[in-house]
Amino acid sequence: MQTFARTSTIAWIIACGIGLAGCGGFVEMVSDNSGQAVQQQPASYPPEELKPVPPTPIAIQKAELDEPTWDPAWNMLIEQALPANLLSSRREKEVKPLCPQFRHLSKGQRRAFWAYFFQALAGAEAGLKPTSDVHHTQPEVDVPDLVTHLPVHQQGLLQLT
């Protein structure tokens, strides 16, 4: 039951932000540059391609409680580090459940979508606490690491193992 509640919370947070990130309403149409080579390395982008990202509901609550919250500078780091394949309109099928208008978004709006997505994920996974370190004791998630055979520990904003 806890897994369902956690999944529901993550889905709710991401769904709330879809409209804020430009996925819900009218968006400008852009041409598809699918004929160009895909750039694999992150690059610097013009300021017009980097969009401000609104705070998630969890970030707002933490700010109201005067607790550490999402650093807006992290949005810029995410937007600048995104590989070109995450910005491609070819991702539409994979992203459509979260952002039905993804293929119609400008590059800047796609960057903002991904920054918001990672912000929401970090809020749900680690409570926006970058030093979060968790060892779950529930049997369904307390599994050994396949490489080290030690119990799995999740760390950081995205609770990576």
UniProtKB/TrEMBL annotation:
Name of the protein described by the UniProt record: Lipoprotein
Species in which this protein is naturally found: Candidatus Sulfuritelmatomonas gaucii
